Amino acid sequence: MDPPGAFADAHVASDVPQEVAAADSFWNSQVGGACGSDWSGTVLAVNIGGRLFRTTSKTLRAAPFFDSMLRHIEGGHLGMTMDEDGNLFVDRSGELFVHVLEYLRMGRWLLGDRGTDFEFVEALCREAEFYGLDGESQLPLPRLSEYVTVWQFRDDMVLYVDCSEQTLREDADHQGLFRLCKYSGGLPLDQQTGTKRFKATSHSVQAVIAYFALRGFKLQHVLDNSMITHTTSADGQSRTGSGLQYLLSRVTTVRAGSSCGSPVAAFKWQHCAKEF
Predict the structure, then answer these.
(1) Alpha-carbon distance 152 to 154, whole Å?
(2) Which of 31, 59, 155, 174 sits a CA distance of 20 to 30 A from 100?
(3) What's the rounded Cα separation, in Å, for the pair 31 and 212?
(4) CB-side exposure of 205: number of CA atoms within 13 Å?
(5) pLDDT score at 71
(6) Cα torsion angle, 82, 86, 90, 91, sign
(7) DSSP letter for each residue of 76-100
């Protein structure tokens, strides 16, 4: 069954202008001409938003959009939209199609640093859906950089951890290794990331860092003699002093439902900790 919108740029064969018919003839010459012939390895040129891409029909057929289009061309049913050189033209983003084509070739998304750009990934998700790559396992997923700060005052053995609740609550077996700070843990330290403050039951820096290392975090920086403020009472009294900070980070993939855009919208911190 043809995917919705697969022929948004197509014209019905009846009343096809002479130049379109000529373009079809040129297109047929690229794929061998004979309807139903095996031309899966033939190199084809497609114009996506003004950018020319060359690939095989087998690669293109991995996308339902192109599979339907090529089957109709084989059957001679439709006159497709072509550019002035007779190449199939699709009025979509050529910049985004670079990544779509790599997915069709490799079977996975190669986004590099752009994988952490939520707006870019959402736009690419929409583009993937246009080409019929709308299964949950086919859509690109954004990646998120998570940060954890382990710290202590210079004259104190107590260790604190600033991170999101979700980072700790994903580990069902943490068994109270970290407790939400009563006075400074109720509200996020950072509204955007949902960072909260926890007190570690261990006084060993190595043990706490090892805990996060087992969960994919890597130590990035150590800051000595940094000034830290910590709320110590319900009426807002706080302590400020010199401390030692260990900054850790990891990159995770945001899992989501099947609808595009949900990878970004669904990533919300879960507030399931209780105060101690």
Answers:
(1) 6
(2) 31
(3) 55
(4) 15
(5) 86
(6) negative
(7) T-EE--B-TTS-EEE-S-HHHHHHH
- SS3 call for 190: strand
pLDDT digits (tens, 9 = 90+) for 195-246: 889 999 999 999 999 999 999 999 999 999 999 999 888 888 889 999 999 9
* Residue 78 CB contacts under 8 Å (≥ 6 apart), including other chains: 7, 10, 11, 12, 13, 72
How far out from the chain centre does Cα 40 lie? 31
The pairs formed by 105-113 with CB atoms below 8 angstroms and a separation of 24 or more are 105/55, 105/59, 109/140, 109/141, 111/140, 111/143
> In 131-217, which ranges are continuous DSSP H helix?
165-169, 205-213
Model confidence at 30: pLDDT above 80 = no
Helix (H) or strand (E) holding 54: strand 51-56
* Nearest C-alpha neighbor of 160 from the set 172, 171, 148, 170: 148
Quote the mean pLDDT of the chain: 78
40-59 burial, b for 16+ CB within 10 Å, e for fewer? eeeebebbbeeeebeeebeb
The token pair that represents 247 in the structure block: 């900054």
Q: Identify the CA nearest to 187 among candidates 197, 201, 200.
A: 197
Backbone angles phi, psi at 48, to 5 degrees: -110, 105
Q: pLDDT tens, 43-64?
A: 899 999 999 999 999 999 999 9
> 174: which 2 tokens?
């943490």
Amino acid, single-letter form, for residue 51? R
- Buried b vs exposed e over 226-241: b needs ≥16 C-beta within 10 Å? eebebbeeeeeeeeee
